[in-house]
Amino acid sequence: MTSIICSVRGCHNNWKKRRASLQQLCFEHGKTRAECCGATFNLYPPPSTDEARRMWLKALNLKKPPKKPNICSFNFVDGRPSVQHPYPEKWLGYVPPAKKARRMLVRLQETPSTSFASHETDAKTDEMTDGMPHRDASTQWEYLFMEHHSYAADPLHCPHLHDQATQCPEQHQLSLDAFQSLTDELTAGCSISQLHPKDKLLMTLMKLRLNLLQDDIAERFRVSQSVVSRVISQWLDLMEEKMRCYVPWLPRETIQATMPQCFKEHYPSTTCIIDCSETPLQKAHNLDSRGESYSHYYGQNTISSSS
């Protein structure tokens, strides 16, 4: 009988403690509890039916319940299983989730006045949505970024995007004449396919200068993301090959004559300083590659690219 214990988590009542409580003195009657009030608690076995036993075990919330989960009277609301509270509900060793009351739905009666007002509101909404220049069929949201880029406001069959997209703020402005000259030199011998060569050049410059996402560029130029990736890869190689002559390399004598004193003392063989920008990378699976690409300054994995 000593093996009968309470199965509730954190409860240590067992049959041995129950038998010892019968020998305790009752202060109310002056006798032992076996002669008057009885034991301080009782142990109750699980119900016999399958459904009631399942609810019994659900209340215990144990990962590995015993074969015969007995529960003491301290864990019942009425001190024992009753009709109103047949399962344990008190001091179960965990916080049971709160039961949310279901919301009652009440159908409102539609009156003629409210019906007329709703139809008038719908008509006003339709008028407002008809005036929106950009909207999606599924979300009816406006593309806010198009308000700042007039070249994306018209469909693809309108004048080329490069006609207005080169008008940037003053700090990185590129005039149409300079853009036209650069385009003529780079696009010599290039065939016009889905995109005009000027649009391809503009797409590449936007990626280099603003570091926009390829999905964003694809949305602006009305093409797929794969087309943007392929165009940027091809034009980077083309620009590197044809614009190499624009990088000035001074003679070593000129560099030595204009070199700062600190460089003459510590770095006398310096010929140029390459400015690199950090681009975030996805964490590599290889731990060595992850450690080599981690930047303590930015707190993430990056790759250095010259600009």
Automatic annotation (TrEMBL):
Domain Transposase Helix-turn-helix, first and last residues per copy: 194-243
Start and end residues of each stretch annotated as Disordered: 111-133
Superkingdom of origin: Eukaryota
Biased composition (Basic and acidic residues): 119-133
InterPro entries tied to this protein: Transposase_HTH_dom
Pfam family, one: HTH_Tnp_4
Record-given protein name: Transposase Helix-turn-helix domain-containing protein
